[in-house]
């Protein structure tokens, strides 16, 4: 595709490098920005540049942070006894949005996936050892994807640390709220029968 | 949604201001940029900022350009007798990609659409008068959307300038290459019968 201007071509090329955005969408976005006041695009451009230059990773949990220790890890109201092990920051945001968890997190930075060339050494597993050495944690909760890769990762970590005296748990799997049994997959339905819970009228 | 970092929150907010991009996609894009080398995001941010600050509009056709007169308008090999009237720069790119047009363009900057509050005064219609005064153009070709708004715009321009001695034409409407008649809409099929062409074995 030939663009009438080199700066437009450059912007389209850069925008279309983002995942899920092709040349046509990139052009549409660039034209949209050109129709807005200049401050809009300047704000967008500046915020993208400061994102990568200013963001830090929390030393404790590997979450993104504006400081050396993130707001969750430095929050004294949150329990140090529970550590929720997740794949990435989106999972932290999702769990925080439920408002049901008052412990801390540990972000692995991915899951073991030989197909994608990700082994245990690419993950933040040494931080689990660090948590164990600190001696405050009592329970590690696996909140990983319900996929083969997620299960493999949980099993790897469990096997490595099962003799350290710490308790391991996994978030409940089962039928989601609003699901009809008829359409639920067999594995989820099977697991939800095996892991049935005492009936509680308050749920 | 609560983000673990203010720079991340700011970037997500700015990215999700783009059309068709919600908060979740914006977060996914921001996390993608954080996984790339910093130069990637810096390049993207810089190109967006220079896009709006450096781009110019061609004085003649209102196309985007790096100069006062765009490469198409200043190309002496292209005919000044044909002026193709289009809505925006994407149409110019689409027509240029066909390689079938050697005239010049005039970008209206939209189409008459009372529903969206766009009237003739928001469009580059004075530039049509300027082209008429220059006296080089012999034919105006309407290449507008095949919609009510596109037709209204063409009709408005035609009515305003029909006594100026210039010839008006419209790009052909009909059945697209690869279309099956069975699934073609009635209006297109009807028009393609009325505007049938002499059979040409070279087509």
Automatic annotation (TrEMBL), chains A, B:
Keywords for this protein: DNA damage, DNA recombination, DNA repair, Metal-binding, Zinc, Zinc-finger
Keyword match DNA damage: yes
Residue stretches making up the Toprim domain: 81-176
Zinc finger intervals, C4-type: 58-73
Family: Belongs to the RecR family.
Biological role stated in the UniProt entry: May play a role in DNA repair. It seems to be involved in an RecBC-independent recombinational process of DNA repair. It may act with RecF and RecO.
Protein name: Recombination protein RecR
Organism: Chryseobacterium caseinilyticum
This protein's encoding gene: recR
């Amino acid at each position: 595709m030939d663009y009438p201007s080199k700066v437009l071509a450059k912007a389209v090329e850069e925008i279309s490098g983002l995942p899920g955005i092709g040349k046509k969408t990139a052009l549409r976005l660039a034209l949209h920005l050109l129709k807005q006041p200049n401050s809009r695009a300047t704000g967008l451009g500046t915020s993208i540049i400061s994102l990568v230059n200013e963001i830090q990773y929390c030393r404790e949990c590997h979450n993104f942070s504006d400081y050396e220790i993130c707001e969750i890890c430095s929050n004294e109201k949150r329990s140090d006894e529970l550590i929720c092990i997740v794949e990435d920051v989106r999972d932290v945001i999702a769990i925080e949005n439920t408002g049901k968890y008052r412990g801390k997190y540990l972000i692995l930075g991915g899951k073991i996936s030989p197909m994608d060339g990700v082994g245990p050494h690419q993950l933040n597993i040494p931080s689990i050892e660090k948590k164990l050495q600190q001696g405050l944690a009592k329970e590690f909760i696996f909140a990983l994807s319900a996929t083969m890769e997620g299960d493999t990762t949980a099993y790897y970590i469990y096997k490595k640390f099962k003799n350290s005296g710490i308790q391991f748990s996994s978030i409940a799997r089962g039928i989601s709220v609003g699901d009809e049994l008829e359409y639920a997959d067999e594995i989820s339905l099977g697991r939800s029968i095996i892991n049935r819970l005492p009936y509680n009228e308050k749920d």
